[in-house]
Amino acid sequence: MNRHPGTSGLIFNEPNLWEKSRRGRCAISLPKADVDRVELDQNLTEEAPELPQLSELDVVRHYTRLSQWNFGVDSGMYPLGSCTMKYNPKTNEVQAARQGFAAAHPLAGDEYSQGALKLMYNLEQYLGSITGFDAVTLQPAAGAHGELAGMLMIHAFHAKKGKQRSKIIIPDTAHGTNPASASLCGYESINIKSGKNGILEPEDVAAVMDEDTAGIMVTNPNTLGLFESNIKEIADIVHSKGGLVYGDGANMNAIMGIVKPGEIGIDVLHLNLHKTFSTPHGGGGPGSGPVAVGKILEPFLPVPRIVKELDSYRFVVNRPDTIGRIHTFYGHFSIMVRAYSYILSMGAKGLTDASKLAVLNANYIKESLKGTLNLPYDMPCMHECVFNDAIQKENHITTMDMAKRLLDYGFHPPTVYFPLVIEGSFMVEPTETESKEDIDQFIDAVKAIAKEAKQDPETLKNAPFLTKVTRLDEVAAARKPCLRG
Amino acid sequence: MRYLPHTKEDIESMLKVTGHSNLDDLFNCISDDLKTDKSIDIPEILSEWELNAHMEEIASLNIACKDYKCFMGAGSYDHYIPAIIPYLISRSEFMTAYTPYQPEVSQGTLQGIYEFQTMITELLGMDVATASHYDCGTALSEAALIALRKHKKSSQIAVSSLVHPNHRQIMQTYLKPAGYEIVEIPYTKDGLTDIDALKGMDNIAGICVQSPNFFGNIEDLKAFKTVSDDKKILFITSFTEALAYGLLKNPGSLGADIVAGEGQSLGIAKSFGGPGLGLLAGTKKQMRNLPGRLIGKTLDTNGDEGYVLTLATREQHIRREKASSNICSNNGLNAMTAAMYLATAGKIGIREIAQQNHDKAVCLKTTLEKAGFESVFDKPFFNEFVLKAPAGFEQKRAALINEKCIFAGVKLEPFYPEFKQHYLFCATETISKADIDQLAKEVQ
Amino acid sequence: MKEINDLNLPEDLKYTKDHEWAKLSDGVITIGINDYAQDQLGEIVFVELPETGDTFEKDDEFGSVESVKAVSEIYMPVAGEITEINEGLEDAPELVNESCYDDGWIIKVKPDDMSQFEALLDKGAYIDMLKG
């Protein structure tokens, strides 16, 4: 049991698709031509694009080998801070693949799409209840897209009041998407520092909040894994100057059933279905970033909205104050199906237990690794804890070296070098779906690496050794970009 | 709960380490007035088989049964998805991985997306393609922002009125708060973007034209390139049907500076409109202006080839408020799906499928014309076209959906109120001659 | 990273608080980033350049220098018109690391107001500023 999962096995080489290509091969089943061939004007057409020519087995083997070079949640523990890499239930995939969902055309018409509308309507209600808000839109395609939608609503709110504002307050622990989303609305970011306990102090907010400031963007729990316990006072300060409070719900997995952001002064909140609600990250998406709002922002929600009348559902687009459309159709519907399936599989108690166990796992890791790694904020954490490499620096070992060495031990590294407020951060979010045994193995691995840092630092500097490739030259990649084959 | 592994003993021993007496104490750092006293109001937990029954019941409320026939496009297309694609894309190493920030254990995603970028540049005739965007509408909005930021003296961009109406609405949402404005280029009676209307537009930062356009007609992109060159502004093209470029001249060869497109046709289920696949490509000159992730090839310390995320300084996690876009997650898994589709179809397959789409659409058009529909535009199209329906069609159309699961065209009027009784029809390779004949018989 | 005493800061150059250097010859000012800046950034992978003929005010951002994981804006030490840019940096941004005062220069400027140049920091004043 004490053996770490990392080992070396047979890893296949696999060239690029076009290197395997042989003229004349084709892996797709072509329908027989049962209608006349009609040539388009030759001025409009050209030779077919030079795509690779492969057999079906060529394609299958190619992607099977590629997949074996990847690490996923199903491979092992993936404690990436602020990313909530929890288990992605397989039943969710079965539900999303049902013919009635997967084959539904977005323009079929409300009357013929009642299943999709009902599911979306219900999911809005469930997310509203989980977060304590009055209304939810499911349209944003990702968390950052949700942030943009939320900020556009704040922008529209101020415009409607007759006086646009020019600034937005953003704490130094925020995800980079926060200031980038605010910028798209033309807001200048006013950065404020977290207090000495790693959370925002009301007086720091009061010092910059004025009547030209649109509001504040707060991630709660924040990216240090700490609960912003002054949130109500901060919200009061912002509201008293006519501003609004944007909540980044990336870390909602810590507080389901414990805190409802809609009840503590937050006006608008985005969620990440691909974090808290178990939908797969897919190597970088597609995600889904629903946005929940209170009554004052409800008129500004993107269109279309879904309304329920008796037992039927329909889309409404005519809403005078809406920020408009943000997705070609209705957002990432099949991701919504997965999240809906997850919520029904968990129930209210299951979701609350998930948050409690996520917090238990993080605190357990924090206590177990304290001393092995430096812990800049030694206080009870939420669903993630942030260490750094201050101890290992003595042996010239960095967070990056430890992260790379973890790969050899069979673990995906935590988030590194974020949040920016801690130098060399090493941000661990185990999630609730990791068992005590797996977490103990991870803790053992980190301790073993800390020992190596003292006794054999060279090994760490050259890690990893068991992966398909060793450390890659990112400088060369950026100096002379080669973005296509 | 089967996703939660903790036994009672686990919890007790872990709490001992954390120094708490029970799970609720873990939240002592949150004061009581911030905690909720309301429970979460959601249905009772369902077992897996109860969930199956419940989900099938909801899914069956959508009219999308097994023998369903779809003559609709308008941004979402019914194409055959080869069996190997769902099989391969379901591999959990692809599906359950995060963004490839640790390249040593993400080479599968990285090489796969690098190959995707390569095949998209080949399909579109462009130098650089990003690792994907959400959908065509959002990609097109980003493209418009690139043009507007480059051309600082202008706050307007010209957009064809035959760009998908929903895409134009998204552009409006993105552009308005930054103080930018869309100027619509009207269409001609031939169902093409009116290039002459650009003459009077002196203060624009770029031109956006969709081809095939929303009516299905193929635009003369080269002519628009000439105009944009004269005005020294960026030429942006878009498309909703990626397979068209298995047959048509690609936008790169016709002079596009930036191309935004929808890649749903490339092996991705319609799924009620999402997730699809936003495609974004540009000339070499635009490389650093394109938002979103890019994968590049490099070497490892042993000198072996490998792939990494690169040019990340353009992105929000580094540039924060100065980033030109806030995009983080994209539609990566669907990009991988599209790559699998393009590799499966290959040069031979994509051409044959594209040609068949065109053939079936021409057959559908002539057959419906014989059945009493009126041709509206007489211009070359790919797999979509507009027809004016005979009186009484709307009722027949509804009956066809309800009784036979046949969706006969997209009603044009909600998008273009001037086109009453007009429908946008689409035929793909999934439609047989028999399907076309059946439809004609039913609506006669 | 280098200690302040190890920095190469030629006596005959002027410096800014944002770590640019400037050198006057024949009425034209050559501008680049100094040893401290290139050392802090690490391996430089891209230099964003303005175009010849662009005009800027003093302290305007005229370009940026990028490493793999950081971007640093560069500011005009003086107001003026860009007369030349170092096109060699496009293919070889590493010149800024290897030779920040010679081959790694960034722009040449025809200044609007020579007194702005005179007012820049000399080596001693710059080092004092670094020491804070």
For the biggest β-sheet of chain A, the strand order reads 1-7-6-5-4-2-3
Distance between the termini of chain A: 44 Å
Cα shape of chain A: globular
Name the chain pair with the biggest interface and residue counts per chain: A-B, 200 and 202 residues
Report the C-alpha radius of gyration of chain C, rounded.
14 Å
Number of domains of chain A: 2
Mind summarizing the main beta sheet of chain A? 7 strands, mixed
Find the structural class of chain C using helix and strand composition.
alpha+beta
Give the tally of structural domains of chain C.
1
Q: What is the CATH T-level topology of chain C?
A: OB fold (Dihydrolipoamide Acetyltransferase, E2P)
Identify the CATH class of the largest domain in chain A.
Alpha Beta
Number of strands of chain A: 12
CATH first level of chain C? Mainly Beta
Counted beta strands of chain C: 9
Helix content of chain A: 25-40%
Unreliable segments of chain C (pLDDT under 50, ≥5 consecutive)? none
Counting DSSP H or I runs of 4 or more residues, the number of helices of chain A is 14
Instruction: Enter the CATH topology name of the largest domain in chain A.
Output: Aspartate Aminotransferase, domain 2
Structural account:
The complex is a heterotrimer of chains A (485), B (444) and C (132). Chain A is α/β, with parallel strands linked by helices and 485 residues long. Chain A folds into two domains: 92-344, Type I PLP-dependent aspartate aminotransferase-like (Major domain) (Aspartate Aminotransferase, domain 2, 3-Layer(aba) Sandwich); 348-476, Aspartate Aminotransferase, domain 1 (Alpha-Beta Complex), CATH 3.90.1150. Chain A has helices at residues 17-20, 56-67, 90-96, 99-102, 114-131, 143-161, 177-184, 202-208, 231-240, 333-369, 399-408, 436-455, 457-462, 474-479; strands spanning 135-137, 167-171, 188-192, 213-219, 244-248, 268-270, 291-293, 305-309, 312-316, 385-387, 415-416, 426-428. The model of chain A has no long low-confidence stretch (mean pLDDT 96). Chain A is built from 14 helices and twelve strands. Chain A is globular and about 70 Å long. Chain B is of the alpha/beta class. Chain B folds into two domains: 69-82 and 348-443, Alpha-Beta Complex (Aspartate Aminotransferase, domain 1); 84-341, Aspartate Aminotransferase, domain 2 (3-Layer(aba) Sandwich). Helix content of chain B is 35%, strand content 15%. Chain B is built from twelve helices and 15 strands. Chain B has helices at 8-18, 48-59, 84-89, 92-95, 107-124, 136-150, 165-175, 221-231, 316-319, 332-370, 393-404, 433-443; strands at residues 69-70, 128-129, 156-160, 181-185, 204-210, 234-239, 258-262, 278-282, 294-299, 305-310, 374-375, 384-388, 406-407, 410-411, 422-426. In chain B, strand 5, helix 8 and strand 6 (234-239) form a beta-alpha-beta unit. Chain B is globular, with a radius of gyration of 25 Å. By secondary structure, chain C is of the alpha+beta class. Chain C is 22% helix and 33% strand. Chain C contains five helices and nine strands, in the order E-E-E-H-E-E-E-E-E-H-H-E-H-H. Chain C has helices spanning 35-41, 88-91, 95-98, 114-118, 123-131, and strands at 14-15, 20-25, 28-33, 44-48, 55-56, 61-67, 71-75, 80-85, 107-111. In chain C, the strands form two sheets. In chain C, strands 1-2-3-9-8-5 form a six-stranded antiparallel β-sheet. Chain C has a three-stranded antiparallel β-sheet with strand order 4-6-7, with no helix packed on it. Chain C starts with 13 loop residues before the first strand and ends with a helix. Chains in contact: A-B, A-C, B-C. The interface between A and B is large, with 200 and 202 residues.
